[in-house]
Amino acid sequence: MLLEGIETLLVLAKEGTMSKAGSYLYISQSAVSKRIARLEKKLGKKLIEPSGRRIKLTADAIALIDNIGPSYKEIKGLIFDQQRFQDHTIITLECSETLVAGYLGEMMGNYIKTDPYISIATHHTPVIVEKVQSGEATIGFCAGHLPPQHGLATRHLFDEPFAVISHQSLSQTPQALLVNDFQNPANANQASLLQKVGIVPLMEMDSYTAAAQLALGGVAPALVPASIVKTLKIDPAFCHHFDFLDELTRPVHLCYRQSSYQSARIRTLIETIADVVPTKA
C-alpha cells in the first residue's frame, strides 16, 4: 500500500490534477484522493493542497519526491526483474507512434499469431524510457535521443533520415517549417540544427502525420521522418532534400532491462524487431 501511495503522489505531481492522475493510473479520481489520504495518514504529513483546479505540493511532498522518486523507479524495476515470463505473461511493447506505424505493422500482424500475449502502446521517447526503467513496459522502441544515464540495455538500429514535405515545388531551403514538438527532449537536436541554418519553426505539432498532411494540403513545408513518408506513401515528387538534412537524423533504439533479455520470449521479440527494421531508410 505504501508503494501504491508513493506511485500515486509521483503521478499526481507530474499530471497536476486528480483527474489526470486517475486517467494515467486507470483508476477513478476518488481512488486517487483516497490513496493520497492514506499516504498522508501513514506519514503523518500533509502532502497536497488545492490550488484552483490543480493541486499544489507541500514542502514535505516535494522533499519526499526528491528523496524517494529515483529510488521508487529502481525498486519497481527490481521487482520486475524478479518476474518470470511464462508462456502467457503479457509482454508490453512501448513504441514511438511513427516507428510502429512505419515499420512494425505487417511484422506484428504475423508475430502475434505465434505469441498473442503482447500489448503495444505508443508514447514519446522520454515516457517510454521511464516505463521500461520501472518495469511498466518490457521493451521500448524509441525514436530520437535517449535521456542520459538511463541505465538500460539498448540496441541502436539505425539513424532515420528526414525529408521536407511540400505540395509545392521548392527551389531553395524554406525559411520556415512545420515541425514536431521541440519541448520533447528527444527532438532537441532538431531545434538546434534548424536554428543553426536559420530556419524558423512555424508551428509545432504533436504529430508528424498532422504536419505532413498540412504540408500536403499547402499550409507550409514540413520536416518529416522517413517512417511517416513510408506510412503515408507520400509521392517522391513532394519529398525534398536540402543540404542541412544530411546532418539531421534521429537515432532509433530498442531499450530494455538487461535481465529481460534472459527470457526467450522477450529475446525473440527484440531480435525479430531488430531484423525487420531497415539498417537505413
UniProtKB/TrEMBL annotation:
PROSITE patterns: HTH_LYSR. It holds the Pfam family LysR_substrate. InterPro entries: LysR_HTH_N, LysR_subst-bd, WH-like_DNA-bd_sf, WH_DNA-bd_sf. CDD domains: PBP2_LTTR_substrate. This is Transcriptional regulator. The keyword Transcription applies. Belongs to the LysR transcriptional regulatory family. Residues 1-58 form the HTH lysR-type domain. GO terms for molecular function: DNA-binding transcription factor activity; transcription cis-regulatory region binding. Keywords: DNA-binding, Transcription, Transcription regulation.
